[in-house]
Design goal:
112 residues; 4 helices; two-stranded antiparallel sheet; four-stranded mixed β-sheet; alpha+beta
Length: 112
């Protein structure tokens, strides 16, 4: 394997895209290796690096299946369910608290 071509920030040729740019186009790398590298210089640290993929070798994003959609809904519901009171909090419970606001701060809820 040879070295990757390195381009300066905003100077990559047409036909290359980052992973996020591919997703915005409805594409995925599709198993291809990184084709090039983009570097953005910084003053006190090493450069920021973004990997580029060839657009012509990219494949379309796989469609969402009903099973994937159900699994995603179940995972999101688990993130909203309080482990202490087993109720749906209506929001994603922060990992720093570990419980819903009502269970985390019971004294403040009674005062209000």
């Amino acid at each position: 394997m040879g070295t990757l071509p390195v381009y300066r920030w905003r100077l990559a040729p047409d036909g290359y895209a980052t992973y996020r740019q591919l997703r915005a186009l409805g594409l995925r790398p599709g198993g291809q290796d990184v084709a090039a590298q983009l570097e953005r210089p910084r003053r006190r640290r090493g450069p920021l690096v973004a990997y580029l993929y060839r657009i012509d070798r990219a494949k379309p994003v796989r469609p969402m299946t009903p099973a994937k959609r159900a699994a995603l809904a179940k995972a999101n519901a688990a993130r909203r369910t309080c482990p202490a009171c087993r109720r749906d909090a209506g929001y994603v419970i922060p990992p720093t608290l570990g419980t819903c606001a009502t269970c985390a701060f019971p004294d403040e809820q009674r005062a209000a």
